[in-house]
Write a structure and sequence with these properties.
Order of helices and strands of chain A: HHHHHHHHHEEHHHHHHHHHH
Number of strands of chain B: 5
Largest sheet of chain A: 2 strands, antiparallel
CATH architecture of the largest domain in chain B: Up-down Bundle
CATH superfamily of chain A: Cytochrome c oxidase-like, subunit I domain
Distance between the termini of chain A: 8 Å
Number of helices of chain A: 19
Helix content of chain A: 55-70%
CATH topology of the largest domain in chain B: Four Helix Bundle (Hemerythrin (Met), subunit A)
CATH class of the largest domain in chain B: Mainly Alpha
Number of domains of chain A: 1
Largest interface: A-B, 47 and 43 residues
InterPro entries (chain B): Cyt_c/ubiquinol_Oxase_su3, Cyt_c_oxidase-like_su3, Cyt_c_oxidase_su3-like_sf, Cyt_c_oxidase_su3_a-hlx
Pfam families (chain B): COX3
Oligomer: heterodimer
Organism (chain B): Methylacidiphilum fumariolicum (strain SolV)
GO molecular function, one term (chain B): cytochrome-c oxidase activity
Order of helices and strands of chain B: HHHEEHEHEEHHH
Subcellular location (chain B): Cell membrane; Membrane
Structural class of chain B: alpha+beta
Strand content of chain A: under 5%
CATH architecture of chain A: Up-down Bundle
Amino acid sequence: MDSEMSMTSQAAHGHHEGHEEISWIRKYVFSTDHKMIGYQYMVTSLFVALFAFFLMVLMRWQLSFPGKPIPIFGPILEKLLGSSMAPGGVMTPQLYNSFGAMHGTMMIFMALVPALFAGFGNFVVPLQIGAPDMAFPRLNMASFWLFFVGVLIMMVSFFVPGGAAKSGWTSYTPLADFADMGPGFHPIFNGQTLWLIGMAFNITGSLLGSVNIITTIIQLRTKGLSWMRLPVFVWSELVTAFLLLLAFPPLESAAIMQLMDRLFGTSFFSPEGLIINGKHADISGGGSSILWQHLFWFLGHPEVYVQILPTMGIVGEIFANNTRKPLWSYKVFVYSLLAIGFLSMIVWAHHMYMTGMGQAVTSFFQIFTTIISIPSVLLGTVLLLSLWGASIRFNVPMLFALAWLPMFGIGGLTGLPLGWTASDVVLHDTYYVIGHFHYMMAPASLLALFAGIYYWFPKATGRYMNEFLGKIHFWPTFIFFNGIFFPMLVQGFAGVHRRWYDGGAGWQMAQNVLWLNQVMSFSAWALAIAQIPFIINFFWSLFAGKKVTDDNPWQATTLEWATPTPPGHGNFLHPVAVYRDPYEYSVPGYKQDYLPQWESDERLNKEGKLSQVSF
Amino acid sequence: MEIPYTVTARPDTGLYNAKVGIWLFLASEVMLFGGLFSAYIFLRLGATHWPHHILNVPMGLFNTMVLISSSITMVMAWSSLKMRQFSNYRKWLGITLFCGVLFLSVKSVEYKDKFHHYGIILNSGQEITGHLAMTEEEAIHSDVLKIKPDPENAGDFLFQLKSIFSKPEGEEKVLEIPKKEIRWWSNFVPKYNTYLATYFTMTGIHALHILGGLLVLGYFWGPGAALYRTNPEHLANRVEVAGLFWHFVDLVWIFLFPTLYLF
């Protein structure tokens, strides 16, 4: 391994003159290379995803068998977090709330967005546009480390007195203004305050990252790569970066205001006459909790698209590659992305129909929520029609990408009733909502995440992931995702509330659908087991996977496949130029069924060959 | 490996990388302050009572002048660099730095004034503002608050101007108010009311931006200026980018001043 590593590093240096030897710590830890930063983002966020999933695995026990001690992990929890949190291995309501809040926060802000936007964004975008690195490499490193500190703060918050934040991933006020305060809590080192500080780090990191991605795409596109020749993944990253850039700062100001409320006793989000624990709160009042909701959802809604847009890009890439034909309509795809990006900024208050905002405001948000479904459907249609008449290669990336489509469909269509006040009032805060948004955020986002990992793994490491283990990973993952989330839609229609600590056991009307709790819990546990083949595959393939014999193993057309395998510092051996559209597959009149963007017409029909083997 | 367009502009966009980056960053800053301003509007629209004349307008006006001047000197510093007049660059950037420090000094005097200014809300809902006629320590332990109320004309520009240079004369009569008649009293810190909460939060974040700007400009005045010898155009670009940030921070103040001091 060591000798192989040094070979890579020598090889990586070999093709660019005048490079001093980089120390280990600058190469793997404080790296400014976009690819290494991409790996760092990806590995960190996969760990966070596993951790946050584990929180939910434990919560599912409480939902199915309320009040019973958690087997195996119960005693560990009691030992780690104290008997006030898990007496005798039973999950207390506080622990349940804190696990729920942290599951949401970590999954969204510290697992999925960093993996999909920053992980793939950092690794793939500069390669796909033919750039030597990101526009601001040191800023890039700073973004990662800000994010990493944010993750650490969130992790540490589990062990402060009173435990991690308990006010939901939305941190609604005035609850969050006063949660984790008073006797037994440290004024700063308490769950909710650490949540805010951790989020501030995370937001700052995302902002710098999105500045970097946008600048890179605008400035560092190689010769010939005009806007309408950009791969769809680059487009999706561009739109996502703009959403993060513009939607995140209001949440940062909201987090600052909530910190002011908590640390300096202001009343930004606390109304007059607030009673806490039977006592009149000693505050000036005059604030508004609706204000928090507005500022939160102004980010919170675009955030959903921040997750789903890069997955659309990934799926688009893999579809084109494995259907061996151009996307059904590249232009519709791109304009839909842009339309979704724009509209997603003006639909946020559809999360707030229950606050009584008034008819005019709700009408506005209903209209735009309905309108945003149009580009979403167009986009799904482009992908669906791309399959029509194709001779599809069913490799593992394609399986995951194909499975994305129905998951995205269910997630999107179940959202429509929530976009209209009349039906939302009934379904609000039930498991139906949980089921709906998880279809987007869990099956759709994660399946595309896996698809992307299987797809770009050969470029990143020089080895394929194992096909058989990949299929063993795929089928149970796909099935059990639905086993978890489809019953939620059913329970939601029966009126089961999303925040019940006992899974509905205490409510007469829920008795008919209680058995579904166990279906969901066993699916969740089976889903956890189904990830084992992936973890084995990931590490095994890193060192012993089948070696890639061609720089372009999938016979793809986009620029990332023009680099050596794995790409060294500076990425390309020769300056690259772009001669054609991104997905010229099966063009009649050529010997091969794919025309890479970087090949001019004269140079086509040559055999692909491996310019460098390493790793 | 060299990243293209760090110094020269990309032909089709006409911009070098850092300029694209700073404009994007400023867009996000607009949204950050946009969030705060929206919060201000939202809270003020819903407020039953909004205090006036708490801040010293002449001081704020002076600070506005200081920042506007610093924007001008910032441009002079950059154009000196473009004309390769290094000593002029040092001079103009030095004045810019001085203006920034002056702004923060005046701001901290204003903050200090607020911490010594008190407000009392009686059980009847009536509000009395003024300065304590006892030490803070005594006020906390005593059953009676002794306070010199602000005079009627406390909001007048001339009165405020005079009060900067001489002790506030106020009405000499001292009110003695038993604490059991008081619902809420405190000095003018953020928690006193929503107005002061927004005032301190917004100006505080703005001051942090000024401080950040000063650090960056200070670096380019001092050690960062060494780049002039090897690549003056690169230094000019960096100063331009830092200057764009500086103008933005000034612009935010142009909005903050009327919002918080005048309306």
